Amino acid sequence: MMSDSPAPERDDACRNRLEESRSLARMLSEADPLLVLQTVAESIRTATDSIAVHIERFRDAASAAIVVVSAGLNGGIEKRNSELEGANRLVIALGRSERTGSVVLFRSPGSPRVDPATLERLTDLATWATLALRQSALLDDVRETRDECQRIVEDKYRLISGVGGELKERLGVAAEYVQLLDTEGELNEREQRYIARSRQSIDAVIRVINDLIQLSRIDTGNLSIRPEPANIAILTRAIVRDSQLAAGTIGLAWDLSIPDELPAITTDIDYVRQVLDTLLSNAVRFSPIGGRITVRADVRPGRRKWDAQRYVCLSVADDGPGVGDNELIFEEVYRVERRGEKPGFRLAIARRIARLLGGELTLESEPGRGSTFTLWLPDVPPDSSPTYTGLKQETDLALLR
Q: What are the sequence ranges of the domains in the chain?
């Protein structure tokens, strides 16, 4: 009487195929797809007792296939040609609706036909080869796009640096002439006001040029981050005190909540100061007369489930007009009009610096209800190297996802 249960050999074959698929799946998610293709080529060569196996990828419909990986070919070109001369070729197409490539088997004349069980395994391996080829092609496209974007950004940096340097030099000459006018004899009140406005305009343009140059330096990886141990509580209080002195007597109330027990962190103190200066100056600029600015510091877990890092968070809140789009404000081209003033590019720079420090800069705001900017700083920066590249860092993270 025949049993309904499969034979033990069949069970073992199914378990082996399942384990092989799991292994390839792990490799495809954790390793370079070329490693998966190499493993598949070796497995196919062993299973079919072939002389050699090629896995090819089609670049496009008009061009010939290129060999991505090979298995079973050792020695020089002459030896390889002699081994493959006269061999039977068996081609397995990869991809159904869209041909992505093929597996080419080179077998000795007179080799036995591939048995059905091996054909089933070859079907599994061909599926993984198809997935790996597609992922390899996608990664190549991402890398090419990243490299092209990097070239464009570097060209922009050279243009901005060159033009910016020339403009700063010309504006410096103009500032010297304004200074000479200021010392020429007696000036009436109207003339003094015009000279003061001219000097302010020149200084404002120079600040914008410096911001543009720094923004380009960040995008091209030309910004050096130098981490050092920092007492974030003492540093934050000192920065807030400087902002209070700069704000003067314009009727603003300040609320500080900065505990002494904040953990020490390793970061670039100068760039933390730059980001906080930007947030505090914006809060002063957009707060109404008699308004309140609140500065708080605390320790929080990461904002995402997979982020096990803990962050020291520095928040700056105001009761100004608020922002309608909390993300758009961090773009370089965004402007907020108020009393004829514009914030320039400094929020875009501040977010980029926060990310280079391994953290983030976030905003919670609603129109008419004020804004709260929060700088997230990790205990240690993301890399021990002295220079981080903003564009490369973001695209590398995209590749890992």
A: 8-140, 225-385
Residue 209 pairs in a beta bridge with none
Q: What tens digit of pLDDT does each residue of 190-243 get?
A: 888 888 888 888 888 888 888 888 888 887 777 888 899 999 999 999 999 988
- Residue-wise pLDDT for 171-196, tens only, equals 888 888 888 887 776 778 888 888 88
Identify any residues that bridge with 265 across adjacent strands, giving them in sequence order.
230
pLDDT at 1: 43
The first and second tokens of residue 182, run together, are 């200021």
CA dist 302 and 308 (Å) reads 6
Domain 8-140 shares a fold with domain 225-385 = no
Q: Is residue 3 exposed (0-12), middle (13-18) or buried (19+ Cβ within 10 Å)?
A: exposed
List the beta strands (DSSP E) in 169-269: 228-230, 253-257, 265-267
Q: Hey, which bits of 128-252 come out as E strands? A: 228-230
CA 249 to CA 83: how far, in whole Å? 89
The CA distances from residue 83 to 41, 89, 358, 384, in Å, are 18, 13, 54, 50
Residues comprising the chain, all counted = 401
**What CATH code is assigned to 225-385?**
3.30.565.10
CATH 3.40.30.10 for domain 8-140 = no
For the question of whether the overall pTM of this predicted structure is more than 0.85, the answer is: no
Write out the H or E segment, with its range, that includes residue 351. Answer: helix 346-356
